[in-house]
Amino acid sequence: MTIVLAMIGIIIWTNRSARKAGTDINASRQQTAISQPVQESETEISSYAPVASEPADSASPLFYAMNGDARTVTLKNAKVSIDISTKGAIPVSAVLYGYKEQDGTDVTLFNQNEISLNFLLDGKNENIKTRDLYFEPVMKTDSSVVMRLAVQGHGYIDFSYGLKTDSHLLDLRIKAQGMDNFFSTDLNSISIDWIQNLRQHEKGFEFEQRYTTLTYKLTDKIRSKIIGMRKTTSKTGVEEPIDWIAYKNQFFSCILASDQTLTGATLSGLTYQKGRGYMKKFQSKANTSFDPTGSEPTTMHFYFGPNDYALLKAESKLISGNRKFRLNRVIDLGWPVVREMNRFLIMPLFNLLSRWNLNMGIVILLMTLIVKALVFPAQFKSFMSSAKMRALKPYVDEISAKYPKPEDAMQKQQETMALYNKYGVGLMGGCLPSLVQMPVWMAFFFFVPNAIELRQESFLWATDLTGFDDIISWSKAIPLIGTHLSIFCVLFCVTNIINTIISMRQQQQAPGQEEQMKMMKWMMYLMPVIFFFSFNNYSSGLCYYYFISGLVSILTMIWLRRSTDEKEILAKLEANYQASRNDPQKQKKASSMMARLEAMQKEQQRLQEQQRRKN
Fold this sequence. Notes:
By secondary structure, the chain is an alpha+beta fold. It has three domains: 2-11 and 27-46 and 57-332, Distorted Sandwich (Beta-galactosidase, Chain A, domain 5); 345-573, no CATH class; 581-614. It is 39% helix and 24% strand. It is built from 14 helices and 20 strands. It has helices at residues 2-17, 205-210, 309-318, 336-354, 360-391, 393-402, 409-422, 432-435, 437-450, 487-506, 514-535, 540-563, 566-580, 584-614; strands at residues 72-76, 80-85, 91-100, 106-110, 115-121, 128-129, 136-140, 144-150, 156-163, 169-177, 189-199, 213-218, 224-226, 233-238, 242-248, 252-271, 278-289, 298-306, 472-478, 482-485. A hairpin with a 6-residue loop joins strand 5 and strand 6. Helix 5 runs parallel beside helix 12, helix 5 packs across helix 13 and helix 6 (393-402) packs antiparallel against helix 7. It starts with a helix and ends with a helix.
């Protein structure tokens, strides 16, 4: 029953962010480009296309910066290649090495048609909007470049980019030189407007879209926050200071962090429909500190890379400053208890087994067996509690025969509870130990879809453990199912049905709970059907884990049933009862229990007598 409750929670959580989706990764990607925004709805976030402006004034200090040629400067290391454009002095392309798209090419996070990044500075007589201005690269190495914006009659502003060695971090320092007279004396911030289309990278559009989120971390908080995308569009204002904002795909992220924090943020999102090649479009507007005198540079950091928990944690330490940025919090590992289960059990175990260079399917199998072994004491305690109740069934049947009338249900229940107390059988003994298994189930639900190590790893008939397996597929979509049948999902549901049958047979219902048990049975038999429609598009690795976990549970229960004798259990219960009769402490506890039961019985009789008098 606890597993059913856990899975109900899972379904509610996932359906909260589910979206209509499709599967064609490359379809109409150029039509959805930033220069040609999609007319998805009337409330779509602001257009990417630059707004037409008045002809440039030749007397303007920015006149020469308004005219030029857009060129790119490439910064690269062993992990990433980033193009910086002279127009706007912004990253316009990011390609990751070591990770492949579905067509076998290197993963491209974005190109120049899919990103818009604008920095705005208020001047005394004229404002600077970097998106429309041309910078000049004055210093260039393989991993760094200084983009200079010359302001006629004043000074210049340098945008200095530096790509760290063997890292996915791109540092940005913005510093003014000789610009005191251009800016007003009260200027202390620079505005940022960042818009981006997030590509589809994975096989299953629906599943990836669930994990495509706009995430941010408040400065004084440890955990990150995720903008809810329940509607086609959404908009959220954040009053508190922010350390970073992340545009996160399932396995890759673009993150903007500021040493001076981000303030006054407004975060917006648009969810795309199928066939566009994109998951969502995000827009962030925020401010960060700026010193017009140039004494203190504005320092920011971009992370263009994979959602690898250990890597993000290491990259966070490379960022300058005294604050802990905790970029690894961009990965959602679940609610507090579940997150800690992932951090201190599931992930270390996975990392240990992964070092053996085994197939990832074997790694998941070994993890399942190890975790099952760890929770076996709780499972065994739950089984023995049910076995003791079954052993006492003859006595329970005698009590039921003694009170056949419905109005005697309270007396029947009280005597049954007294019987269980007499032999030391707790009604909660079968439930509480099972609760230990719930965080494990939930931990795997959050871990597997976020484990980039499973990406594009094959096992048996599944070509990618992070996507659905679809060796059985068809062209025309079937309602609630789609265009494929996931074999691992079917196996998971079958083992769930078998587990339900076994569980129902071994449970001994308490007197007076017949109607509740009927309802519970219907719900537990219905859940595998719901699981099928919910998990058919899920990660095959996750369904595989649930299948193996269920199969191990079935084999364990069969072994436990064959290795236990209910007659022997009853004999031990009788012996323990006889021994406890000479124990004053146990007798005192039993007497206290009986006193409470007698009080309950008297109260019930009083209420029944009052009811008869009214009638």
